[in-house]
């Protein structure tokens, strides 16, 4: 028997190593959400709106980023990501909305910006000044000791080029220097807007590793004794899903989803292909699967079965209907598949192939974006809010 | 006290940025313009005295006799104040629009969100640089005047008296005041328009050709229009605009420019 798992559009090999550590540190993916008893959220804003004349760029956006997570802020180009980030950073005045950043009021950026580092859009530093003098000038402006500049240059891998003019740097080096500028104040909150824009694949990998290390390194070392929160925006979900524990999806200035990255997948459907050893047992297998309440279709010598995470099938557990899992059997797609396999075997059907095709995060994201567009079209300025069963919030 | 610290930090940070080629270039151009003015004034001076013009201040229409007076040493420097004003306006306008154009303003405001404090520190540094540059330009002008006096056979015995040194100090102070006024207007236009081409086009077109065209048909323009008023202050007063009223009018313009610039910088979104 062959059992394979394919995930179109998702590279499981690159995702797995970086997804585990932060999630183990953040129970239920909800550390510091501002819930009673927990630490305050790093970012907690409500009803954020920005209008330019009659055009609304950001509409009634609620954003919560738990303390200590690496959060992805995702949406297509023009979704309002950069405007939202500019509002969070005091560069753009919100038309409406309130909230807190690091526990300080949104309307008073001077109170929280000293603890925030940010890179907004392209790196903007002085072309004729060296990397070192660019950072030294910003350090002095922020009230930091410019003596720390060398350590920052070292951290972002530019120690050997610190005395070269900024204009001579490659785009990747410019991005890294701009991140260095954001790190000058050893920030509790790091906001990076499209940090991989314009980078080649190698530069993207380096940037991804740098962002992840900025979050993980700080957590492990505890340099300032406080957890560091990182908010990374991108128009590519595949870009942020590899490094983020928490995801916020926006479309047309509206919130489409926010919650744990894994939660974004939780309500999706998995499709499974089952191939019995003998084609003449397809009918019996189809009846068996349908008997468990799972949608099934025939496709040649195999069956296509839809597994809905939110509605586990009543398949038997390993100990049968009277076992500890009860008559409804175990939860979860893996357990459902195992139950199906056992039930088929019990009826003399041998499965030679079970192929699971999970809906990719990209597909789920696209579905959310289209759903939000549809909501915007049908309701005008209003939006509907519902909560998923996984702690995430979808609109 | 927070505001004072902000200004002090901004001043120190801008000081680090000042050491770059564009600063040296601007200083060199200022020195060159001053020397050029001095050379031209002395080279083109008439052999015979010009007819007396009651109330007339020193202009380009000079004689060697006037050059031999206690004011002779700084007549060239004074004549260059129009050029200096233009240069200062351009430099301050461009330096502000470039911050918007390069996006560096957002980088700065992420580090120091108290925008007015940052602006005060920045203007402080740039005007300090202008003050130093004007000292250097004055020195170059004096040196050029001394050389030209020998060439034109001008008697310089009155140049090195205490009265002449007082004239030098006055000329420097007036040039610096005029530079501050031009700087404030340039900065205000830069903040307001956020575009180098628009700021230079509007500022230069208004303060130079348009004001001078109006001046041709209305002598009162020298006492009213900003560019001409600033120029009158820089020259220590003119026949159509005596020093005191010109200074008051210039201060009023500068205050209005500062207020507009401050409100715009503080309240408008930074989208660059």
UniProtKB/TrEMBL annotation, chain B:
<feature type="transmembrane region" description="Helical">
    <location>
        <begin position="123"/>
        <end position="151"/>
    </location>
</feature>
<keyword id="KW-1133">Transmembrane helix</keyword>
<feature type="transmembrane region" description="Helical">
    <location>
        <begin position="171"/>
        <end position="191"/>
    </location>
</feature>
<keyword id="KW-0472">Membrane</keyword>
<feature type="transmembrane region" description="Helical">
    <location>
        <begin position="243"/>
        <end position="265"/>
    </location>
</feature>
<protein>
    <submittedName>
        <fullName>ABC transporter</fullName>
    </submittedName>
</protein>
<keyword id="KW-0812">Transmembrane</keyword>
<feature type="transmembrane region" description="Helical">
    <location>
        <begin position="83"/>
        <end position="102"/>
    </location>
</feature>
<feature type="transmembrane region" description="Helical">
    <location>
        <begin position="198"/>
        <end position="215"/>
    </location>
</feature>
<feature type="transmembrane region" description="Helical">
    <location>
        <begin position="24"/>
        <end position="45"/>
    </location>
</feature>
């Amino acid at each position: 028997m062959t059992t394979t798992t394919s995930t179109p559009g998702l590279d499981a090999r690159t995702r797995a190593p970086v997804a585990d550590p932060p999630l183990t540190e953040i129970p239920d993916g909800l550390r510091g959400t501002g819930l009673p008893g927990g630490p305050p959220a790093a970012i907690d804003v409500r009803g954020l709106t920005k209008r330019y004349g009659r055009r609304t760029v950001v509409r009634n956006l609620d954003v919560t980023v738990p303390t200590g997570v690496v959060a992805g802020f995702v949406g297509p180009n023009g979704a309002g990501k950069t405007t939202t980030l500019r509002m969070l950073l005091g560069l753009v005045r919100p038309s409406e909305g309130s909230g807190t950043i690091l526990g300080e009021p949104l309307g008073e950026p001077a109170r929280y910006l000293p603890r925030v580092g940010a890179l907004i859009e392209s790196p903007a530093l002085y072309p004729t000044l060296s990397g070192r003098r660019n950072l030294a000038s910003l350090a002095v402006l922020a009230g930091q000791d410019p003596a720390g500049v060398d350590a920052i240059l070292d951290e972002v891998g530019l120690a050997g080029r610190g005395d070269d003019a900024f204009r001579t740097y490659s785009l990747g080096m410019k991005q890294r220097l701009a991140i260095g500028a954001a790190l000058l104040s050893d920030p509790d909150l790091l906001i990076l807007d499209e940090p991989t824009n314009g980078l080649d694949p190698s530069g993207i990998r380096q940037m991804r590793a740098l962002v992840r290390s900025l979050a993980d390194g700080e957590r492990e070392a505890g340099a300032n004794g406080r957890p560091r929160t990182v908010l990374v925006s991108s128009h590519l979900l595949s870009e942020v899903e590899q490094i983020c524990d928490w995801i916020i999806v926006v479309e047309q200035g509206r919130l489409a989803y926010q919650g744990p990255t894994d939660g974004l997948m939780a309500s999706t459907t998995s499709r499974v292909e089952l191939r019995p050893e003998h084609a003449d047992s397809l009918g019996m297998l189809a009846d068996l699967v349908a008997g468990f309440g799972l949608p099934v279709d025939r496709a040649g010598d195999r069956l296509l079965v839809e597994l809905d995470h939110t509605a586990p099938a009543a398949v038997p557990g390993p100990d049968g209907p009277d076992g500890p899992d009860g008559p409804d059997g175990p939860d979860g797609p893996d357990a459902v598949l195992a139950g199906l396999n056992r039930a088929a075997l019990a009826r003399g059907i041998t499965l030679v192939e079970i192929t699971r095709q999970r809906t990719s995060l990209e597909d789920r994201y696209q579905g959310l974006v289209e759903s939000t567009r549809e909501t915007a079209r049908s309701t005008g300025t209003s939006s509907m809010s519902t909560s998923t069963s996984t702690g995430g919030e979808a609109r | 006290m927070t505001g004072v610290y902000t200004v002090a930090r901004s001043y120190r940070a801008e000081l680090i940025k000042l050491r770059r080629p564009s600063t040296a270039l601007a200083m060199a151009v200022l020195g060159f313009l001053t020397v050029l003015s001095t050379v031209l004034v002395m080279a083109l001076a008439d052999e015979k005295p010009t007819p007396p013009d009651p109330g007339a201040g020193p202009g380009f229409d000079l004689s060697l006799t006037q050059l031999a007076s206690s004011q002779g040493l700084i007549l060239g420097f004074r004549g260059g104040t129009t050029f200096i004003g233009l240069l200062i306006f351009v430099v301050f306008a461009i330096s502000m629009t470039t911050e918007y154009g390069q996006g560096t303003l957002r980088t700065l405001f992420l580090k120091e969100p108290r925008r007015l404090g940052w602006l005060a520190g920045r203007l402080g540094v740039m005007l300090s640089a202008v003050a130093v540059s004007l000292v250097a330009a004055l020195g170059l002008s004096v040196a050029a005047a001394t050389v030209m006096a020998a060439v034109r056979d001008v008697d310089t015995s009155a140049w090195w008296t205490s009265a002449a040194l007082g004239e030098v100090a006055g000329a420097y102070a007036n040039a610096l005041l005029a530079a501050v006024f031009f700087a404030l207007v340039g900065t205000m236009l830069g903040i307001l328009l956020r575009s180098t081409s628009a700021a230079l086009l509007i500022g230069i077109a208004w303060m130079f050709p348009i004001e001078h065209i109006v001046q041709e048909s209305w002598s009162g323009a020298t006492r009213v229009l900003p560019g001409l008023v600033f120029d009158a202050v820089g020259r220590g007063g003119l026949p159509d605009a005596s020093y005191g009223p010109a200074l008051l009018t210039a201060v009023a313009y500068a205050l209005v420019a500062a207020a507009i610039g401050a409100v715009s910088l503080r309240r408008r979104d930074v989208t660059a």
